[in-house]
Amino acid sequence: MHADLPTEITKHLPDGYQPSQGVWLVLPETDTVRDGITTVNSWLRAEDWYPKLFQDVIWFGDDGTGNMFGWRLKQQKAILWNPEDGETPWKEGNVKYLWQFVLNGYKDAS
After folding, report:
1. Mean pLDDT of the 13-38 span
2. How large is the C-alpha radius of gyration of the chain?
3. What does the alpha-carbon distance between residue 43 and residue 29 come to, in Å, rounded to a whole number?
4. Which element (helix H / strand E) includes 58?
5. pLDDT at 98 over 90
6. Does 32 have pLDDT greater than 90?
7. CA spacing 20 to 30 A to 104: which of 4, 26, 64, 90?
8. Cβ 20 vs Cβ 36: under 8 Å
9. Which residues pair with residue 58 across a beta bridge?
10. Distances (CA, A) of 85 to 8, 50, 61
């Protein structure tokens, strides 16, 4: 699974990347500190409400407020998504753009 992720993400494995309290731009690979990438992907896919549209997405991080970072394999782009939003990602783009969006207080960089 992790081999399908871009270098910006995999370079932070196995320990993850938490630039500020609660914001895991990259979750740890395993469940040592908190739920890791494998666990998050397993439980999400097991939920009956999980959108079929996201079957190719690898979830790799979260912003600490319920939004999740995912990598769309088929489209080769990152998404920011909240499970309450159904099948519609909040933001799409490259990994660094989404990270900066979150770290910039949910504002696009000017």
Report:
1. 91
2. 13
3. 15
4. strand 57-62
5. yes
6. no
7. 4
8. no
9. 71
10. 26, 11, 17
DSSP summary character for residue 13 = T
Tell me the one-letter amino acid at 61.
G
Consecutive H or E run containing 94: none
Residue from 44, 46, 45, 26 nearest 36 by CA = 26
Higher-scoring residue by pLDDT: 3, 26: 26
- Give the pair of three-digit tokens for residue 34: 């908190």
* Mean pLDDT (whole number) for 86-100: 95
- Residue 64 CB contacts under 8 Å (≥ 6 apart), including other chains: 21, 22, 23, 24
| Helix residue ranges, H only, the chain | 7-10, 37-46, 95-103
Rounded Cα gap, residues 10 and 29, in angstroms = 9
DSSP at 9: H
pLDDT-based confidence at residue 110 (cuts at 50, 70, 90): low
pLDDT for 1: 63
CB burial of residue 63 (10 Å; 0-12, 13-18, 19+): buried
Mean pLDDT of 71-75: 95
